[in-house]
């Protein structure tokens, strides 16, 4: 059975010319344009948004700063919640999708 790849939107923060996880709850993840990024070992899964509108809504107000939204491709995860070594389950905003791997493609 072929791997199902879907399209979505990823929020990243820019630090020292690198694209990192938009929000750190566990490990910071580095994303490279047009390359697959997999989820960290101690945290998971990666989070993306289903629509640009959901990503923009989440990014309003206090979170704008050095954040940018990318179009992305992702492999959906079978795990349907975020977790870290410190928290069993993390609440997520509307439109969040969970991914085992993500490829950012271009800025929105």
* Strand-pairing-aware structural class: mainly beta
Q: What is the string of helix and strand elements?
A: EEEEEHEE
Q: Which word captures the global form?
A: globular
Which ranges are low-confidence, i.e. pLDDT below 50, for 5 or more consecutive residues? none
Q: How many structural units, i.e. domains? A: 1
Structure, described:
By secondary structure, the chain is mainly β. It has one domain. It is about 5% helix and about 40% strand. Strands 1, 2, 3, 4, 5, 6 and 7 form a seven-stranded antiparallel β-sheet that branches. Strand 2 and strand 3 form a beta hairpin. The longest helix has 8 residues. The protein starts with 5 loop residues before the first strand and ends with a strand. The mean pLDDT is about 85.
Fill in the keyword field for this structure.
108 residues; mainly beta; seven-stranded antiparallel β-sheet; 7 strands; 7% helix; 41% strand; globular
Task: Give a brief description.
7% of the residues lie in helices and 41% in strands. The protein contains one helix and seven strands; from the N terminus they run E-E-E-E-E-H-E-E.
Set out the fold topology.
Elements: E1 6-15, E2 18-21, E3 30-31, E4 37-38, E5 46-49, H1 52-59, E6 67-76, E7 96-107
Antiparallel strand pairs: 1-2, 1-6, 2-3, 4-7, 5-7, 6-7
């Amino acid at each position: 059975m072929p791997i199902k790849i879907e399209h979505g939107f990823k929020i990243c923060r820019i630090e020292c010319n690198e694209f990192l996880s938009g929000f750190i709850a566990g490990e910071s993840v580095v994303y490279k344009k047009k390359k697959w990024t997999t989820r960290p070992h101690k945290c998971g899964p990666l989070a993306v948004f289903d629509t640009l509108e959901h990503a923009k809504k989440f990014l309003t107000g206090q979170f704008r700063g050095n954040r940018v939204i990318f179009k992305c491709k992702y492999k959906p995860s079978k795990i349907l919640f975020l977790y870290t070594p410190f928290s069993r389950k993390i609440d997520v905003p509307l439109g969040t999708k969970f991914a085992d791997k993500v490829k950012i493609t271009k800025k929105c």
